[in-house]
Amino acid sequence: MKLAVYIIVMAGVTYLIRMVPFVFFRQKIKSQYFRSFLYYVPYAVLSAMTIPAIFYSTGSYITAAVGTVAAVALAYFGLPLIVVALAAAAGTYITGFFL
Amino acid sequence: MKKWFSRGAYDGIPIALGYLSVSFGFGIKAVQSGLSPLAASVISAVNLTSAGQAAGVDIIAAGGTLIEMILVQLVINLRYSLMAISLSQNLDGSFTAPHRFAAAYGITDEIFAVCSTRSEPVRPAYMYGMISAAFAGWVTGTALGAAAGQLLPADIRNAMGIMLYGMFIAIIVPPAKKQLSVFLVVLAAAGISLLFRYVITAVSGGFAIIISAVAAAALGALFFPVREEADTA
């Protein structure tokens, strides 16, 4: 099958999934339960995406664990996103020398 | 307008850097699957999503059917629908329908996370700035990875692999520290996710994330309802 057809179908489905609810969900949600649910969704999604995948992200559980601890510690003190992300990478990279 | 665009682009720098590293890996994978660097870059430009693209390339390489392609993209990317609804609640009044059609393209996990956790309503220009930064990182990384992936030392590639997750942690931890309810929701989501990874392994990765997140957020809403004005993180 033509590569272009695959790519168009793939991109089309991905766009529709994002666009339809974003464009057609206009009114403020009244239900307190549903509003609370939506408030918690981003944190829940990010948590589920991070644990346990982060421990598989560097090819070594040990370097990943050190990177994770570094990130959590700096995030706890409220440092900016980029600093936390770089600290995770630095922790991983440096730990790699000792293995 | 200009101010908001550049502020969005600035806040998108960590996203761009994270994407640069992740899409680098995607570029390598796409070339190994028989795609040209150009095709890999086009896929990244029109999809702007990690897991969906990786699965899509697998289907292309295997010569799968279009039905399979549609179903896989639906399942893996379904979370964007939840995010779009959630984000629609925190938009500025200037976010008219044409802006929504355009900005919908850029609802990714990371852009959603940064936009939806802002205390003030999101403006179109802010989101466009952030999408531009993310797009630049994602497409550049794909092209570089596809063209020159093997040249980079393995330990650097490995260290880059953790950056996106580091960013997730930076988004989750501060509100979890401030609010017990967010902390418990985060713990519940992680716990359910672990369960899917090691105990109920029949469920695929995309579904596992959806179920974990929905269940944890539903529990949070049940036990810790958020009051109208008190919901700023």
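Residues 2-171 of chain B form one domain.
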